[in-house]
C-alpha cells in the first residue's frame, strides 16, 4: 500500500482518499444532526390525542348526563323518585354506548352514578308580580333557603312594569325590584329596573359596595334575563358572571316583588321549603316542584398510556357548568 | 501515473524498477477512483438523508394537519355549545329520507355545506381556503332486533369524495333522548318525534336494563378535512 504521508516524489493519492472519507463522514454527521432536529420538532408539534381525549370523554359524559337530567325532569315533573330512576337507568346506557365507540380506538371508558342531589324548582308561569302566593301577597320573600347552588334561573319581565331610573334615589337597589343572594359576609344584589326606555340589570356586591353593569336591553317590550347563564335578552352580561362565584350555601330572596311583572323559574340545590307562600305544582302563580338538581358521576378512561379517573357533577344550567 | 512517468525520465533502475513503478501507478489510480466513489457516495447519502426538510411534504403537512384538526374541533365545540350540532343531526326530512336541503338523489350533501347553523360554521371555517370536508354521523344500531346494540353504522351528512392520506379528523358525541323531535328546513323542531321509521338512527339500549331507557341513541359526528 502506498504511504499515507506524501513522499518527496509528491505521492498524494492516499491523502486525497482520507480527505474524501473525512468529508463524506462529516456530511453524513451533519445530515443526521440536522434531521434529528427536524424530526424532534416534528414530534414535539404533534398533538397527543389520547391525553386530550381523556378530558374530552369527561366533558362528553357531563354533557350527556346533563341532557338526561333535563329529560328526567321534563318527563316526570315533581316526582324525584321517578327522575332518579330515569337517570340511574340511563347513565349505564350512555356509558355502554360511549364505551363501545371508544373501544374501537383501543380505549376503555366507563361512567357510573355516584350520587344524586334532589332540589326544588320554584316557578311562576303566569304574568304577575314577583310577590309570593299569600293573600295579601308579600313582595319580599325567600325563594330558596340554604341553597348549595342555583341552576336554570331565568325570568321574563315586562319592561313597562319596572321602576323607572329617572325617579330613583341612590342607592338604586333600595327602590327597585331586586334578587338578593344572601351570602357570608354580605349580600350580592341583582337589581332590575327601567332606564330611559331600556331594561337595566345591575349587580351590586354589598361587601365592597361596588356595582357591575348595568346590562341593558331595548328590544321589544319584554326582556328575558338568564341569571345563571349570564345573558340579558340573549346577549352576554359579564356582570351576572359574579353569581357563579358565590360562597355556598346562600339564600335567594325577592325584594320589591311588586315593582316587576313577569314569569320566572329556578332550580335550587335544596329541599328546604321557601319561606314565602308558594302554591301546588300546576299553579300559574309561584309554585314549588320536586326536581333533581344534579348528578355526580364517576368517569374512568383507560388507554395503554393514560389511566384517568375523575368525578363530574352534571347540573344543567348551573353557572360555569 | 505522473510520478511513474517522472521516474522513468530519471533513468534510475530502469531494468529492475520499471515493473514496480508501473504497479504503484495502477494502485494510485485505483485509490483515486475509490476515493472519488466514496466522496460521491457520501454526498449522495447526505443528500438523501436531508430529503426531509422543513418544507418537504412529510413535515410541513404535519403542521397543517394539526391546524386543520384544531379548526375542525373548534367548529364542533362551537356547534355543540350553541346547539346547532344537535339541530344538524336531527335536520332530517322523514318523507324524502334525506337531510333537508339536499338537492341530489343522495341522502347527504355533496356540493354544499348543510343548510343550517352547523353548515354555516363549516363554510366559514373551511370554504374559500381550498379545504374540503366530509361529515359523517356514526350511530349505534340493533341489526337483529334482539334489543341489544350489535354494530355501529354511518350516515353521511356531507360527502365530497375520498379523503387524502394527509386528512385530519375531529369528532364530537351527541346524545339523543327519547323525546327528541326532527327539525324542519327552517331549523324549527316541528317534525315528528324520533323513531326508527322516521329517522336514520333507531332507538337502542346498550345495557341489560329490563326496559327501554331515556337514551335514544349516542351518535358521533365526525368531520374529516383535507387540502384540495
Plain-language structure description:
The complex is a heterodimer of chains A (321) and B (228). With 321 residues, chain A is α+β, with helices and mostly antiparallel strands. Chain A has 2 domains: 49-117 and 295-314; 125-294, Jelly Rolls (Sandwich), CATH 2.60.120. Chain A is 26% helix and 36% strand. Chain A contains 3 helices and 14 strands. Chain A has helices spanning 13-44, 49-75, 80-103, and strands at 108-129, 141-147, 150-158, 177-182, 188-195, 198-205, 210-217, 222-226, 231-232, 235-236, 250-255, 261-268, 287-302, 307-314. In chain A, the strands form 2 sheets. An 8-stranded antiparallel sheet of chain A has the order 10-9-8-3-12-1-13-14. The longest helix of chain A is centred in the first third of the chain and has 32 residues, at 13-44. Chain B is of the alpha+beta class and 228 residues long. Chain B folds into 2 domains: 2-49, no CATH class; 60-227, no CATH class. Chain B has helices at 2-10, 14-49, 57-82, 84-89, 117-126; strands at residues 92-93, 98-99, 131-141, 151-158, 168-177, 215-227. In chain B, strand 1 and strand 2 form a beta hairpin. At the A-B interface, helix 1, helix 2 and helix 3 of A face helix 1, helix 2, helix 3, strand 5 and strand 6 of B.
CATH topology name of the largest domain in chain A: Jelly Rolls
Counting DSSP E segments of at least 2 residues, the number of strands of chain B comes to: 6
Structural class of chain B: alpha+beta
Overall pLDDT of chain A: 83
- Largest interface: which pair? A-B, 50 and 53 residues
Helix content percent band of chain A: 25-40%
Strand proportion of chain A: 35-45%
Main sheet specs of chain B: 4 strands, antiparallel
Gyration radius over CA of chain A: 32 Å
How large is the radius of gyration of chain B? 34 Å
Distance between the termini of chain A: 83 Å
Structural class of chain A: alpha+beta
Kindly state the percentage of residues in helix of chain B.
25-40%
Task: Please mark out the parts of chain A with pLDDT under 50 across 5 or more consecutive residues, or reply none.
Answer: none
The beta-strand count of chain A equals 14
Quote the average pLDDT of chain B.
80
What best-fitting shape of chain A do the alpha-carbon axes yield?
Answer: elongated
Q: Please give the domain count of chain B.
A: 2
CATH top level of the largest domain in chain A? Mainly Beta
